[in-house]
């Protein structure tokens, strides 16, 4: 059992909140425990940065941001990084105070109650699945292009997607430490090739010399920059999943915050630097037109010009491994949300068992793999386009869902500390929670308002995609109310609030 802090315990006893039900602060049942002390801060950071797929985000999405926002586009990534850094402060304050292992699911339960908590848990699982499965379409297209470029062979995209699904299943099943090492290697390679490109551009002086008009007010507030922010916020997807690995982390009270701040800081600075380097590659006056005319190959064109065709071939392979690394990172996050909800009885109990040797949530991984395979096969049989239909149709509600969960989590942090009367001792967390609610709420509004930039679809289709997020949340609320009245024991355990052996503060 965790050791309670006397002042906080007294405050909790003096609050109006009912005590946690019997068994909620007890150790998990035997046979469902994850592998402990398997991850340090670098490994956790590797996984969350890999989930964002830096090379894919840069080569695949940043050209569109430049085409819309022009020379000021790099600043949007810094702005998104600042907003997420504020959110991370609030998020880590909640992690430190509660030791919750279900991230969004646990924190929203503790702050806003079990109904909102279970709805958020369902939304997290669906949103991460949408992100992960949708990217299999992008991964297949990138793999097709790489194989065609290098070997002149054309392989159907569903076949390539299914091979990727099998690889992700195999590595994820082998355990979190194996996955972290695998992701670390892939992440080093993809960031390395981008760094080579940026340094080559700067050393050669770019198209017309190095300049900094990107950071002037004229560029930052240019028309189209609001739309660019939507792309920038989407580029950070998955960074908050650090908290999901608390049970498997070494010294989680230190490693989880470090990994979170490292991930946010690295992505904000690295994304801004790389996109700014591309501005130099084509020239501030020409980059927007160049990006608009050559969205798909902008980075490849720059690589050929400043480094060489050999580097372009290497990048075409690494963009495949970038997407594969992202898939594995999201696979791990999905499995741990599924595991948490199954452990609490909100999903079938069969999903809460871990592998007897690898201590991975293997049954949850089997289910996630099966769902991904079924969706890919269905889209393939329907003759759907892997990019414009599989990727965009699934990824869009996934992105909206994750940012919506971040807004709700920010509210939950404030509500939790206020209700527990910890406002004075957790002043920084409360202020960060209020600020991140505002900042991420604005980001969510910008994303929804510019959703057509992500989907290239009509108003009705866009409304349906955004509306699906609300539908999932409402279904989660309905499930929670069902458990409340028909299965009180399950309802009492909603939130993933089993005792954390590392926690030092009473929840």
TrEMBL record:
<feature type="transmembrane region" description="Helical">
    <location>
        <begin position="115"/>
        <end position="135"/>
    </location>
</feature>
<dbReference type="InterPro" id="IPR050367">
    <property type="entry name" value="APC_superfamily"/>
</dbReference>
<dbReference type="InterPro" id="IPR002293">
    <property type="entry name" value="AA/rel_permease1"/>
</dbReference>
<feature type="transmembrane region" description="Helical">
    <location>
        <begin position="155"/>
        <end position="172"/>
    </location>
</feature>
<feature type="transmembrane region" description="Helical">
    <location>
        <begin position="430"/>
        <end position="453"/>
    </location>
</feature>
<feature type="transmembrane region" description="Helical">
    <location>
        <begin position="459"/>
        <end position="483"/>
    </location>
</feature>
<feature type="transmembrane region" description="Helical">
    <location>
        <begin position="75"/>
        <end position="94"/>
    </location>
</feature>
<keyword id="KW-1003">Cell membrane</keyword>
<feature type="transmembrane region" description="Helical">
    <location>
        <begin position="184"/>
        <end position="207"/>
    </location>
</feature>
<feature type="transmembrane region" description="Helical">
    <location>
        <begin position="44"/>
        <end position="69"/>
    </location>
</feature>
<dbReference type="GO" id="GO:0022857">
    <property type="term" value="F:transmembrane transporter activity"/>
</dbReference>
<keyword id="KW-0472">Membrane</keyword>
<protein>
    <submittedName>
        <fullName>Putative amino acid transporter</fullName>
    </submittedName>
</protein>
<keyword id="KW-0812">Transmembrane</keyword>
<feature type="region of interest" description="Disordered">
    <location>
        <begin position="1"/>
        <end position="24"/>
    </location>
</feature>
<dbReference type="GO" id="GO:0005886">
    <property type="term" value="C:plasma membrane"/>
</dbReference>
<keyword id="KW-1133">Transmembrane helix</keyword>
<feature type="transmembrane region" description="Helical">
    <location>
        <begin position="219"/>
        <end position="239"/>
    </location>
</feature>
<feature type="transmembrane region" description="Helical">
    <location>
        <begin position="396"/>
        <end position="418"/>
    </location>
</feature>
<feature type="transmembrane region" description="Helical">
    <location>
        <begin position="259"/>
        <end position="279"/>
    </location>
</feature>
<feature type="transmembrane region" description="Helical">
    <location>
        <begin position="299"/>
        <end position="320"/>
    </location>
</feature>
<feature type="transmembrane region" description="Helical">
    <location>
        <begin position="367"/>
        <end position="384"/>
    </location>
</feature>
<dbReference type="Pfam" id="PF13520">
    <property type="entry name" value="AA_permease_2"/>
</dbReference>
